[in-house]
Amino acid sequence: MGAELHETAKALVAEGKGILAADESTGTIKKRFDSIQLESTEDNRRAYRELLFTTPGVEEYISGVILYDETIRQSASDGTPFPKLLADRGIIPGIKVDLGAKPLALAEGETVTEGLDGLRERFAEYYELGARFSKWRATYSIDAQRPSEYCVWTNAHALGRYAALSQEAGIVPIVEPEVLMDGDHSIERAAKATGRAQQALFTELHDQRVDLYGTLLKPNMVLSGYEAGDRAGVNEVAEATLDVLTRHVPAAVPGIVFLSGGQTDEDATAHLNAMNARGPHPWELSFSYGRALQAPAIKSWGGDPANVEEAQKAFYRRAKFNSAARTGSYAPEMEAAAV
Ligand code: 5MM
User: Fold this and answer.
1) Is 265's C-beta closer than 6 angstroms to any atom of ligand 1?
2) What is the pTM of this model?
3) 320 given a catalytic annotation
4) Which of 30, 166, 168, 249 could form an SS bridge with 173, CB 3.0 to 4.6 Å?
């Protein structure tokens, strides 16, 4: 089983490829649809995911897709189940298994991610449905008192339990400790909090016998708070993020797949590019973007079947640019050129 996990983890960060996070829960996808004045019905959600998953040529840049519980059970309009449709194109199906970040008891303003109860049985079912990797996201806020050590360790412990169960089921875990960038904090503060969360996470993964060669890390980049006055530029972000990763992420981890966390799509690409331009690194540096891969596509689509082709082109473009960012060969001027 170890060998299979290692192969899957490596395939997810294969040269020039990254992951599409299409695991928006029902509440989150409703917010995305609200922005295009579209009702969030099951069929609209299905149609939107079909648009993404059938984008011509995107398999050149996308190694895997993170699905949501509803989506892994849905099918394309020709009746092909989504996991099969993806696997037939050489894209690995994945599944988000956490049940969301909930208020952490006795810790105002902090959260703990739920979903461990019954997880072994859910993993067995997801494996049958075709999932070969999974994801669990913990969130941490920054302010004068936060993140607390209590929040950091509670989430690290849950991430460890999740990752161990995932590997037991033959499914590669993607551990996602997301330090949120809301607030006016400095990039130094973000670096400290991000490093702290990662250090605790790798302690728990080690103690809970998780095989790092069969695990991927999905971290935030280290940025100034979104409301900070003088925000750090691309080079500073790349250097601060690399510094934190070098200090806290063991080289046994085959790949680091960043989240975009509310950055503009172009910023998310430029930051990844700047980090890879400073390579080689001990791990592959790739992407697992939700918003930064989908934002232009959802806008072009607007819920109208007549716009499917345009929307697919928009998604393809972002996938292609992020693929270029994997080798440090992206340039912002490419945005102006037709793809
Ligand atoms: C796509 O958003 C995912 C699901 O979020 P909810 O569970 O809150 O609905 C999220 O986990 C996502 O996979 C990551 O946070 C990365 O997405 P972004 O948009 O930050 O790149």
Assistant:
1) no
2) 0.98
3) no
4) 166
